[in-house]
Design a protein that fits this description.
Shape: globular
Helix content: 10-25%
Structural class: alpha/beta
Strand content: 25-35%
Number of strands: 8
Distance between the termini: 77 Å
Order of helices and strands: HEEEEEEEEH
Length: 185
């Protein structure tokens, strides 16, 4: 009888731990025109831009297998997510983590640890995020407190008319002046 109770308890613990969700990302360059005005080199995943959302359930562990097809390092950050026991994932490349070198791969092991909600995963090395390396990261509740018909995901972003890396101080100031015309300088 004790053995049966132990097996049932172990099964409950394993079930509570959640699944291991594996997602493969090949981070590379794409030539795209998002504004219908100019075509330039952006950063995408698996040949796509915008990047597909990542969905997991509460308690799951995300295994994000990242291959770097860029010519510079890549690092990722799960924005808004508590990085319990993995603070080395929570920061800028070369500060809390080294970037993934070109032509190399790395697996991020992201424990959702009871967190739920809408987050995002984005590049955290240089200008990767400004050039398109960002995607929604959704952790669904196992038992939502409120019932609803559907989730609708809408993402908004700034989109520059040139790669961020190629902007000089003059273009950056023009962009700032355009966005904030009455800002005192």
């Amino acid at each position: 009888m004790l053995l049966l109770l132990g097996i049932i308890q172990l099964f409950g613990i394993l079930r509570a731990l959640g699944a291991r969700v594996e997602v493969d990302w090949d981070v590379g360059y794409l030539n795209i025109s998002r504004d219908g005005y100019s075509t330039w080199q952006a950063v995408g995943v698996n040949g796509r831009q915008p990047i597909a959302p990542v969905y997991v359930d509460e308690g799951d562990t995300l295994l994000l297998n990242v291959h770097n097809s860029l010519d510079k390092p890549v690092s990722l950050h799960s924005h808004g997510l508590f990085q319990r026991n993995a603070t080395y994932y929570d920061g800028v490349g070369m500060v809390t983590e080294c970037g993934i070198p070109p032509s190399e791969s790395f697996t991020y092991v992201i424990d959702t640890g009871g967190q739920t909600g809408t987050f995002w995963i984005h590049g955290h090395y240089g200008s990767e995020v400004a050039n398109g390396l960002r995607a929604p990261f959704i952790i669904r509740e196992k038992a939502p407190a409120v019932q609803y018909d559907e989730d609708v995901l809408i993402t908004l972003e700034d989109w520059l008319q040139m790669p961020y890396d190629s902007m000089g101080a003059e273009e950056e100031q023009l962009r700032f002046d355009h966005l904030f015309p009455n800002y005192p300088t």
